[in-house]
Predict the structure of Succinate semialdehyde dehydrogenase.
Amino acid sequence: MLTLDNPALLKQACYLAGNWSAADDGRTFAVHNPATGALLAELPYMGAAEAGRAIAAAEAALPGWRARSAKERAQLLRRWHDLMLANQQDLARIMTAEQGKPLAESQGEIAYAAGFIEWFAEEARRIDGDVLQHPQADKRIMVLKQPVGVCAAITPWNFPAAMITRKAGAALAAGCTMVVKPASLTPLTALALAELAGQAGIPAGVFSVMTGGADAIGTEFATNPTVRKLSFTGSTAVGAKLLAQCAGTIKKVSMELGGNAPFIVFDDADLDAAVDGLMASKFRNTGQTCVCANRVLVQDGIYDAFATRLAARMAELKVGNGMEEGVNQGPLINDEAVSKVEAHIIDALGKGATLLVGGKRHARGGTYFEPTLLGDVTADMLVAREETFGPLAPLFRFTTEADAIHMANDTEFGLASYFYSRDIGRIFRVAEALEYGMVGINVGAFSNEVGPFGGIKQSGLGREGSKYGLDDYLELKYLCLGGIG
Ligand SMILES: NC(=O)C1=CN([C@@H]2O[C@H](COP(=O)(O)OP(=O)(O)OC[C@H]3O[C@@H](n4cnc5c(N)ncnc54)[C@H](OP(=O)(O)O)[C@@H]3O)[C@@H](O)[C@H]2O)C=CC1
Ligand SMILES: O=C(O)CCCC(=O)O
């Protein structure tokens, strides 16, 4: 049983056009706690018809929302942010219950998620146009920035709050309206955020959250001509499908997809700092993050020392129910996630890797898994190519800087990368050579509302958060004014 200070935050309905609604046919699906298997809620299993109505409500709300002054929109966003922080403990409890991450991480994610709303409330006031010099003296060029219009978003289960606010904060600040479909595994945090948006005074239809059939809702979002932009965070396969579907109505898209992050430790690195950085990067959310280190590349001269220090730190990790005090590794999200980690370990050991720590399902049962360290991992193993999305750190050995850059870039993905070095020349050379949207240099965690988050290659399109994140929700309009002279 989930105990909350404000039980009204635990929803059993969807928030469409400002009303709490059931599916048209009354169908529901169950949401379970991955730590215990307990049933948390039965939620509406909606489809294309309800998605079409949510989009129509977002269209109806658009003229009023975009006509408000930037200051008014900013004030409402600010109120939403404040309510998120006022309800931080309950939101974190809901998140840990449905997602499994330790409560401290959930509390951190609520603060991170609220940070995007606060940031875009501030940025809303600075959506300024431009006046440019025309090549002819009697004319002027003006550039206006206007909201894209109705937006839709599909979000994943690994960050149930922040992946919504990073999109919705920018959309609402720009003057767009938005319909969100959260992951079916973690919809309760999203619905609690919708409750708070309503309490903040964000008008009906400006922000809606609907749950149900991913394929039907996704197809409606991607093909309905009223939707002018679709923003997606999730797997590359689903992102590619949505991108193709969006082509029919030439929508703007933002895609934040899978990664295969290299974490490079050079001989000249501060080893303790590198171990700290890897622990932060690899084991955040039990390894279920698209920016988690997926391949740890370690230079020959410090390979053994790094492996020994890392193994000692990993042995300290406490696996358990995220609601328990002191736990820093929760369960994996489901059985498929466990199977993928197991498959990567079995494949690597079969091809010559060595097991240094962990390696199997945790004695607690369920979807708990032992934090695992593998040595002597090579490019022919599955873990070199695929995102593990679990608590597995594979160590690859390299000799030269050129080898490290080649190995790091040898993937179709380009989201996050990390390296540790104290040589300033190397820092510039390697940072410029890495084919990634984000590079952590002597840091293992870089996510915040100010930095532009996003990837290249098959990791996606567009940037979220930061002063650049608003651009994805704005259109430029060119006005040419004559007859001045
Ligand atoms: N970039 C990232 O942050 C993430 C990457 N991943 C990667 O993807 C792998 C698989 O995770 P998974 O949860 O299956 O990711 P998915 O891409 O399947 O799910 C992400 C979101 O997309 C929705 N979705 C699923 N199928 C469709 C569809 N046909 N049309 C429209 N929307 C759809 C899901 O809805 P529903 O939940 O209802 O199925 C969910 O809201 C992970 O192991 C990881 O490697 C996963 C999550 C986040
Ligand atoms: O895995 C993800 O897609 C969420 C990104 C986490 C972050 O914002 O750091």
The longest helix spans residues 103-124. Residues 7-257+459-478 form a domain with the Aldehyde Dehydrogenase; Chain A, domain 1 fold (CATH 3.40.605.10). Residues 154-158, 181, 183-185, 214-215, 218, 233-235, 238, 241-242, 256-258, 290, 387, 389 surround NDP (ligand 1) (CB under 6 Å).
